[in-house]
Amino acid sequence: xxxxxxxxxxxxxxxxxxxxxxxxxxxxxxxxxxxxxxxxxxxxxxxxxxxxxxxxxxxxxxxxxxxxxxxxxxxxxxxxxxxxxxxxxxxxxxxxxxxxxxxxxxxxxxxxxxxxxxxxxxxxxxxxxx
Length: 130
Fold this sequence. Notes:
The protein has one domain (2-129): Pnp Oxidase, Chain A. It has 130 residues and is α+β, with helices and mostly antiparallel strands. It has helices at 2-11, 48-55, 82-91; strands at residues 14-20, 23-29, 33-35, 38-44, 58-65, 68-79, 106-120, 126-129. Helices cover 22% and strands 48% of the residues. The protein is globular, with a radius of gyration of 14 Å. The chain has 3 helices and 8 strands. Strands 1, 2, 3, 4, 5, 6, 7 and 8 form an 8-stranded antiparallel β-sheet that branches.
């Protein structure tokens, strides 16, 4: 998990895919954190991606950097703990202008049942599961 986190964090922007009905939806994201031994992302509850993850929690993330990419498939689980939200906000101080750990909008989700696959055009794929 740490290796996946460090790669995604170094990329800066990653792309989160959700499903709306039978239509995939992809958008750029930039927040990733490890808290309490879990891999987290963050969004706002008012956003469509939040609604999509609650309707169908299966998500995929793709990030590319330095000639390699990682695809992360897993199940998103909302964590309502103030401590989890604050940890994300502490990791990304610029978010504190829009979000607060105790507001009704801030949402952090951790991924479970994860398969992360590192790929490139020059190396065999490397799979990490947690």
